[in-house]
Sequence to fold (245 residues):
Amino acid sequence: MSRHVVVTGASSGIGAAIARHFARKGDRLSLGARRTERLPEVAPSAFCHQLDVCDAASVERFVAATIAKNGPIDVLVNNAGLARGTEQIATGEGVAWREMIETNVLGLLEVTRRVLPHMIDNGGGHVVVIGSIAGHKAYVGGGVYCGSKRALQPICEAIRMETLGKNVRVTSVDPGMVDTEFSVVRFSGDKERAEKVYAGTRPLVADDVAECVLFAVDRPAHVNLDTIVVMPTDQANPQMVHRTN
Ligand SMILES: NC(=O)c1ccc[n+]([C@@H]2O[C@H](COP(=O)([O-])OP(=O)(O)OC[C@H]3O[C@@H](n4cnc5c(N)ncnc54)[C@H](OP(=O)(O)O)[C@@H]3O)[C@@H](O)[C@H]2O)c1
Fold:
């Protein structure tokens, strides 16, 4: 039976790949992002709606519109997220810190808290969180991004406890390096600098992560994959990458 799958941050990278994979399965999709003009190209049959996870009113409108259009939400993929800059703590500044924490932590909470009650009323569902290996291991210049991703771990644990007995699954899919627009965003549009992140190595592609999400969601309802850590073979941790150049 087709599921109603909501993907946040579906205009690019991992979110777009996840949307395409679910679309191929014949699921009913609701996609959100700020750059709405990109969404219909991702999955032409999907319901597309403006979403800024940092704006509570936008989140409210998005969740209401998706339920009105596609019915109760079976799967929520909390993918919207970003890193901004690589400043160390002593030289960093609040604008970038706030943007990361507001998007990656508070934004995810604002979406999830509006979706969970509907899932529970509807007899269950699956909350997928796109975390990161940055949430498992910090690196120089990534303290706040890593902190924002580490914060998702207790949030997932709490949701599992708070929804126990309600048929709600919670899975965190935590990738290493993935070749998306992530680094271009991190370096505020500096493509040359972004390309250096992936130079001489073979990163994951967005489809690799999407396949992990699909695998977790496609398990039988009594099976909850807690955390999937997925890394490029050429990456041992956030700062150890094998390069040929
Ligand atoms: N690429 C990596 O190496 C990597 C590794 C581990 C984890 N991740 C995580 O994977 C997720 C997806 O990143 P990506 O690599 O696919 O990067 P990406 O290509 O830059 O995609 C990020 C997506 O998030 C959306 N987004 C950002 N801020 C938003 C907001 N305020 N409201 C709604 N949507 C927002 C963007 O859409 P709009 O700009 O159109 O709103 C875009 O669709 C993020 O959570 C990231 O932290 C990435």
User: Anything to note?
Assistant: The chain has one domain: 4-241. Residues 159 and 170 are 7 Å apart (CA to CA). The longest strand covers residues 168-175.
